[in-house]
Amino acid sequence: MEFAFTQEQEMIRDTAAAFLAEVSGSEDVRAAMATELGYDPELWQRICTQMYWQAIHIPEDCGGMGLGYVEVAATMEQMGRHLLCSPFLATVCMAANALLLAGSDEQKTQWLGALCEGRLTATLACNGGVSDWGADAVRATWRRDGDGFVLDGEYRYVIDGHSADLLVVAAREAGSAGGQGIALFLLPADSPGVSRQWLPTMDQARKQARVQLDGVAVDSGAALGTPGEGWPLLSRVLDLAAIALAAEQVGGSQRLLDMTVEYTAERVQFNRSIASFQAVKHKAADMMLQVEVARSAVYYAACVAQEALEGGPLGAELAEAASVAKSYCSDAYFAVAGDALQLFGGVGFTWEYDVHLYFKRAKSSEHLLGNGAWHRERLAALLLDDAVRADSGEAA
Amino acid sequence: MKVSFSEEDEHFRTEIAGWLQDNLRGEFEKLRYRGGPGDEHMYPQERQAWEQRLAEGGWTCVGWPQEYGGRACSIEQQVIFFEEYARAGAPGRVGHIGEGLAGPTIIAFGSDEQKAKYLPGIVAGTQLWCQGYSEPGAGSDLANVKTRARFDEARGKWIISGQKVWTSLAHESDYCFLIARTDPDSVAHKGLGFFLVAMDQPGVEVRPIVQITGTSEFNEVFFDEAECDAADIVGAPGDGWKVAMGLLGFERGVSTLGQQMQFQNELDQVVALARENGAAADPVIRQRIAKAHAELKIMRYNAMRMLSGQSGGDGSLQKEALIYKLYWASWHRSLGELAMDVMGPECEILPAAPYELSRLQAMYLFVRADTIYGGTNQIQRNIIAERGLGMPKEPRGNA
């Protein structure tokens, strides 16, 4: 057991922090979020050619750097800290994981190679427009048509869905329910029958889209894994994405704490810095507690995620670790953001100061991939419901 | 970053788990899940006998260096030991103050004579210790100690007078380590000495405090011209605060992992009850149980981070260590409330008159101490803000 970053991981984190401090300042974020694309394509190309973050945990034989999910989490933490506007979450932490877990050699060669070279962005579309992020969220349908498949349905909350080149879409066999009948398909976004619509969002720094499939025909080579048996795969993809998102939440929470400590030290009222008031100090202490606890949850979950990708024994804890991390980090980020806004006082309420960017991100990331209550109910079912316990092999 | 244990360490886990299974039976069977905070009054003699059984197996002071009778276990193995100990339901250690606090302090700051005199009794489980820090006027403001130590040249001994309070296990203990003022004109943390005092002498009186639970594990200890050998001051007169603060560092050690396993045993009891009495169907209870479960998991991860990391170069605690007390104490207090809410109206009904509490009822009441002793939640927040975040220090009143 060595539950601390290795020197190499520290270097990756510090390099990311230094790079993002340079390229993702407040003005950069505000410029990117005002565009419909939502990120600066030149910056993304710079990341892809200089930092290789898009290839970070993709194996070397697929053209990647061959690092692990701890490195993904360390990088996401820094991205969250600097609110980097980029297609990283959707491309690397969603679509690439689906390919890594279930892609055939042919699919990996075709898509991961292009992804590693920075020629392709991708995303995951699975939610039909509900607050449940389990199997019931999958509403779109598939049916066989000769050797291929035909897909129909609508998705909401698709991150970068209006701009991604490749869509990993989840659908269910018409008439199926729950975890039955689910399949994942690889779908180039320009396929006939695919329509995409950018949705304006309160958190402008992360773009969401609605994706509509009308009788989209795909050939048999588009299926990821075995059609109809895709729920365990989708579930793992969502868990891996949730862990990365939780890492981003930790980075955002840390930044809010740092900003708050700095601001309250400078702000003078009643002839003293407001940081000297115990009411302020105690709120800041509670913020720090939440940030550090969230960080412990995420680092552990990242280790579990790494084993889940490698097939290690700890991988069996993936669902639990993801729900522990995502529930705690979601609630912590929003609580810390609310406290930061309060301690900034009036200026925290303005468009000019950056607090609102984080406050908005805290809420958008809370509800993306399941909020705290949703993940806690998932944990409760594991602990309290016999059917679920038996299913997961944990029955007493 | 790696969170799994090596094959060698897993072998060690099998060894200690097997030993506990073989020994925690017969006369010791009744000690399972007994003792520890909130239940410290139960079976003190039997638990001391258990302490000696542990010593025979070489399972006391596992983290101490071999030259002092320890097992020199790595951090990982100590973690495993405390986890398996609690998992087996082995009783709260009556020797923990000696093993975890007095011993490490003597090893770090004590003379060779003190080491030879006191360490073997701790390792053998034959001599028990208590801690004399708090006083009626020195709670959160620990440095406001009034107990005096005067050196009597004629007798060649330190003479100690004053009152200590909240001293757990004082009535069972052979020795007390305490801080007392060696310079009567000094204030705050200056002019203190750190003493090792025998409890069995005419100048020491122990009076139990009846707690919110109706039971007593804390005591008041009165020192009236109690004697302490000249050789039994640790460090020089005036060094007491430095020695005492060094000791606080040991308190945040690996035994926290065992504490968490005890918390896990309590949470398991709450979960089992919820499944049994139907509370598990209540969506609000489900949320609270899941939250308690998630936060206990993270408590373990946080402790693992704490144990893997290096402390700051100036000896200061890392951030994850600074928040630790506030986090576990608040968590445990919430668990007590959850336990009563899972019980529902049944939580009011006692197992027996006059005031016998069930384990969960006793836990619910006792956890109110957790957010008070060892630095209240409010003091913890001051420490976090000042040391963790560099915010301004609280102004002090004039003496």
Give a verbal description of the structure:
The complex is a heterodimer of chains A (396) and B (399). Chain A contains twelve helices and ten strands. Chain A has helices spanning 7-23, 26-33, 41-51, 69-82, 88-102, 105-116, 231-266, 278-310, 318-344, 355-367, 372-384, 386-391, and strands spanning 122-125, 141-145, 148-159, 166-173, 182-188, 194-199, 208-218, 223-228, 268-269, 272-273. In chain A, strands 1, 2, 3, 4, 5, 6, 7 and 8 form an eight-stranded mixed sheet that branches. A two-stranded antiparallel ribbon of chain A has the order 9-10. In chain A, a hairpin with a 2-residue loop joins strand 2 and strand 3 (148-159). In chain A, helix 4 (69-82) crosses helix 7 and helix 5 (88-102) runs antiparallel to helix 6 (105-116). The two termini of chain A are 28 Å apart. The relative contact order of chain A is 0.11. Chain B has 399 residues and is of the alpha+beta class. Chain B has three domains: 7-94, Butyryl-Coa Dehydrogenase, subunit A, domain 1; 129-238, Butyryl-CoA Dehydrogenase, subunit A, domain 2 (Beta Barrel), CATH 2.40.110; 252-388, Up-down Bundle (Butyryl-CoA Dehydrogenase, subunit A, domain 3). A four-stranded mixed sheet of chain B has the order 1-4-5-8. In chain B, helix 1 (7-23) packs parallel to helix 3, helix 3 (75-87) packs parallel to helix 7 (255-277) and helix 8 (283-308) runs antiparallel to helix 10 (324-343). At the A-B interface, helix 7, helix 8, helix 9 and helix 11 of A face helix 7, helix 8, helix 9 and helix 12 of B.
Helix/strand order of chain A? HHHHHHEEEEEEEEHEEHHHHH
Mean pLDDT of chain A: 96
Question: Count of helices of chain A?
Answer: 12
Kindly state the number of beta strands of chain B.
8
Q: What proportion of the residues of chain A form beta strands (DSSP E)?
A: 15-25%
CATH topology of the largest domain in chain B: Butyryl-CoA Dehydrogenase, subunit A, domain 3
Q: How much is the radius of gyration of chain B in Å?
A: 22 Å
Q: Can you give the helix content of chain B as a percent range?
A: 40-55%
Q: State the CATH architecture of the largest domain in chain B.
A: Up-down Bundle
Using the CA coordinates, give the radius of gyration of chain A.
Answer: 21 Å
Task: Give start-end ranges of low-pLDDT stretches of chain B.
Answer: 311-315
The tally of domains of chain B stands at: 3
